[in-house]
Amino acid sequence: MALKRRIIWLAAGLGGLAMAAWILLAPQPLSQDAMAGLTGDPVRGEQVFWAAGCAGCHADFDAKGDEKLILRGGQRFASPFGTFVAPNISPHPQAGIGSWSALDLANAMKRGVSPEGEHYYPAFPYASYARADLQDIADLHAFLMTLPPDPTPSQPHEVGFPFNIRAALGGWKLLFLTDDWVVTGDLTEQEARGRYLVEALGHCGECHTPRNALGGMQLNLWLAGAPSPDGKGRIPNITPGALDWSQADIVEYLTSGFTPDYDSAGGHMALVVQNTAHLPESDRAAIAAYLKRVPPVAERP
Q1: pLDDT tens track for 133-166
Q2: What is the DSSP string of 207-219?
Q3: Model pTM greater than 0.70?
Q4: Residues in domain Cytochrome c (predicted)?
């Protein structure tokens, strides 16, 4: 009888632990009224679209002009965890996100949660978008719904075991998902705007900051450069410890893609410049001012 009671208590304890783990690891969407009172403005949303770099991943890599507004997805992003494929985020009601509400978009961007209540992989940079303003997301949603719908189906990610177990992403989020600012202190209004563009919408840290073994950004080495996720080359250190460009140099680079040495942006950075070139010069200047406030990290071998 005593053995039976112990077995019952053990089973109950394991059940309780399983329930606690399920709660901790479950997706945590925003409240249903999170977007209450917010009306999206598609004109403002276009600026959010370029600042957030949506076309850089979700349009064709070689898209030009208005083709950048056809967000059929399909670009492939290799990483140590597998290859991720950008999905269709055009307003097509079946193939894209045409049926999404502004709240659905906010949950995806700030919490990494799909409308079906599943975890997204952090290849979608919600670890940065978590800092985005809800009004900006409402505006972005309004703009996205004005774009051409495309019927191209999204392709599945190529991710093997154990990284294909999405429930484990709840643990990843517990460790690494935060809406705290990386650079704190007494920033000017211009520097604060630059911080928002770099740390939130522009998600610059996703590429320029090294990651630990679990894929979390090492915030103590913020923007200090990192190996390219595809294993080819290195993404540069853009802290003042390595980047000696003037603020005017940075603004020019984000406008034209030309460096002070008359080199030019290549690869995916060329797409980033195509996005930042759409921003007002005041925003590019704000990014430059912020980068000068980032704690310097010496160039690493």
Answers
A1: 999 999 999 999 999 999 999 999 999 988 888 8
A2: HHS-B-TTS-B-G
A3: yes
A4: 40-148, 189-295
